[in-house]
Amino acid sequence: MTDPNTPVLETRNICKSFNALKASQDITLNLRAGEIHALIGPNGAGKSTLIAQIAGGLKPDSGSVHMDGRDVTALPTAKRARLGLGRTFQVSALAMEDTVLQNAVLGALGAQGRPFRLFQSALNNASLRDSAEQALERVGLQDHARTRTAELSHGQRRQLEVAVALTLNPKAFVMDEPMAGLGASGSKSLTGFLDSLREQAPILMVEHDMDAVFALADRISVLVYGQIIATGTVAEIRAHPEVRRAYLGEDA
Ligand SMILES: Nc1ncnc2c1ncn2[C@@H]1O[C@H](COP(=O)(O)OP(=O)(O)OP(=O)(O)O)[C@@H](O)[C@H]1O
Q: Which residues form the ABC transporter domain (predicted)?
C-alpha cells in the first residue's frame, strides 16, 4: 500500500529550456491528498510549461515526475491519464455539437483506452453510460444529459469537463485556469463546486483569478521566471515580501 504521506503528485528538480530560455528551473513541488494547490505567476512565468511536463505532453530536460511515488517521467499523457491524472484545459476539449451525455461517454470510453470508432456502440454500452451518468450527477448536470454541449453556459461546460475527467476515477486533477472566461457568478459557483471536489481528488490548479485562488487554495506556489520563489498557505503568500514585489505588484 502507498504510504499516506507520499504525495499524490510530485515534481523533483524539473528543468526545461527552450534554447537560451530557462522555462523551468529546478522545480520541486507536490500535491498532497485532500488539498488544492494553486500555481500562480505572471504571464510567461512557465506555468503551462510545468503543467505540460506533469501531464506528459512535454519532456523535462532533467528531473522527474511522480504519481503516488511512482516515477512516470517516461510515460506518455494517455498512460498518466489511465494511472489517474485527470485534466481540464484552458481551451475546452469538449465536442460542442455532441450532447452532454455523449461527451461524458466519450470520456468514459477514453478512460478504458478503447478506440474512438467504437463510439456509437459505446453509447449503448451500459457500464460506460452508468459511469458517464454518475459523473454528470456528481457535477450536477444530470438534467442536461441530452442538451447539446454548445448550449451550456461557460460554467456548465467547466463542470462537464470535470465530469469527463471524473469518468477516469482520477487520483489527482490538474486544471489549467478553470475560472477563465467565467463571469463573477460563474466563478463563484465553480469555486463552490471545486471546494467540494478536493476530498475526492486533490487539485493542482493554474489560476489567474486571485479571488478564487485565495478562496480555494490550501497552498499556493508562486512561479516567476521559471523558478518557484515561494510555497505556502494563503496567509504566508499574502505576507511574503518577495511575492508582493514580484507578483502582486505591491510595495513590500
Ligand atoms: N514550445 C516553446 N518553444 C519556445 N518557447 C516556449 C515554448 N513554450 C513556452 N515557451 C516560452 O517559455 C516561457 C514560459 O511560457 P509558459 O507558457 O509556460 O508561461 P505561462 O506562465 O503559462 O504564461 P501564461 O500565464 O501567459 O499562460 C515563455 O517565455 C514562453 O514564450
A: 9-250
Q: What are the boundaries of each domain within the chain?
A: 1-84+170-252, 96-168
Instruction: Encode pLDDT of 173-218 as tens digits.
Output: 999 898 888 888 888 888 988 998 988 899 999 999 999 999 999 9
Angstrom distance (rounded) from CA 248 to CA 6: 32
Atom of ligand 1 nearest to the CA of 58: 1
Q: Is the CB of 23 under 6 A from ligand 1?
A: yes
Distance of CA 135 to the CA centre of its chain: 16
Cα-Cα-Cα-Cα dihedral sign, residues 147, 154, 217, 88: positive
The amino acid sitting at 112 is: Q
Residue with cell 459557483: 189
Q: Which amino acid is at 167?
A: T
List, as one string, the DSSP characters of 106-149: HHHHHHTT--GGGHHHHHT-HHHHHHHHHHHHHHT-GGGTTSBG
One-letter amino acid of 234: V
Ligand 1 atom index nearest CA of 45: 21
What spacing in Å lies between the alpha carbon of 99 and ligand 1's midpoint? 34
Q: Is 19 in the pocket of ligand 1 (CB under 6 A)?
A: no
1-84+170-252 sits in which CATH class? alpha beta
Q: Are strands 36-40 and 9-18 parallel, antiparallel or unpaired?
A: unpaired
ipTM exceeding 0.85, yes/no:
yes
